[in-house]
UniProtKB/TrEMBL annotation:
InterPro entries: DUF1573, Ig-like_fold
Domain of life: Bacteria
Protein name, as recorded: DUF1573 domain-containing protein
Pfam families reported for this sequence: DUF1573
Length: 152
């Protein structure tokens, strides 16, 4: 997506700088400009792409104060290395641990997720958002738990 944008911007600059002069704009666009735009289009197909083994995990009913963990397996089904720049839970009670190394095309890696139910009675649903180098830039999965309150 970013490569497409750069190519489009480059072509826009060429058009903008030539449109105020006499002559046809199409006469001013060189073969090299068109090759750059085509190369940018081709790169978009070679981005990494994420596939999860699951996009949702239900811990079921747990007691308040318990920390539970699960693991999501992320597979790179794209054509270049997958980079996970950041993994963030929707609240501080949800802590993901993404892989630190790039995930090569065709390879998989675990993302561990811990949920701390302390102070979270009732039905809980949290998301984990990954910031990546995929075309959509953000990937997401969810966890859920029914937390029974502590006896007072």
């Amino acid at each position: 997506m970013m490569k497409k944008t750069i190519g489009f911007l480059a072509l826009s600059v060429v058009l903008a700088t030539t449109s105020c002069k006499q002559g046809s704009v199409s006469d001013k666009i060189t073969d090299e400009d068109m090759k750059t735009v085509e190369a940018d289009k081709n790169l978009a197909g070679k981005l990494p792409k994420v596939k999860f083994d699951k996009e949702f995990h239900d811990f079921g009913t747990i007691a308040e104060g318990v920390v539970v963990e699960t693991e999501f397996i992320v597979t790179n089904v794209g054509e270049s290395d997958l980079l996970i720049f950041e993994a963030k839970g929707s609240c501080g009670c949800t802590v993901p641990e993404p892989p630190k190394d790039p995930i090569k095309p065709g390879e998989s890696a675990p993302i561990k997720v811990a949920f701390d139910s302390k102070g979270k009675p009732g039905n809980q649903e949290k998301t984990v958002t990954l910031t990546t180098n995929t075309e959509i830039l953000h990937e997401m999965f969810r966890i859920k738990a029914n937390v029974t309150p502590m006896a007072k």
